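Hello, quick one for you while I still have it in my head. Could you read through the record and tell me how the tokens relate to the sequence? No rush at all, and the record is pasted right below.
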Amino acid sequence: MAHLRKQILGKVSGKFGDIVFRNTKKKNYISSRPVNFNTPMDEMAINRRSRFAIAMKFSSLILSNPDLRYFWKLEKPDDMRIHNYLLRKYYNLVNPDGLSEVVSLTPSLGWIAEIEKFEINDKEIGVITKPLGNRTGIDLEVEKQVRMFAIISLSNPVDTNLDKTMMIPLNSNLIILSLTDNLVFKIPITNQIQDLMGKYQKRIILFAFVTYNFEGKPISYSRTMHSR
């Protein structure tokens, strides 16, 4: 790109053959028109674009959740924007057709929750944990409540007119936190979600738990688990 030092043409903008004129404040700029670019359509290129789109969508869902965003902001490097950090992290973990079982809702080093029962039916997602015990690092003097977050990832639609992938974010109500009792979480499934799940052949459900203090501030989180 070049600019004209003497404005002998006045203010100029637009195209002339292969030349593009652009005016900014008191300067005219000249550049050549870009050569036509054909988007690669080989399988590897298509898969790269698909993975990027899925990683972008999943990152946006995480960032739209204030509690999950809070923990990821604590993990990311200071010199990197959180969206770029998540996009770079998730790109190598997702599949071209949807989320994989190694994708995580929460950052690394979350405490471990053992699941006694996981069930999904027409009305709800139900999860029962085993007692968390004292090895989680949870401080009951501070952490009083807990909630489950989940994302349902759907792919391989039976109808080609549907989106190739769908991601549905869900969460339970807050319940009282205990280290000695089973924790029971329930997330209602609407008729619309149930109908949508029936239109896809592949399903992965990612879920994790977040604890809160009495004022409702997020304090700690579990590792992410998955089920089909």
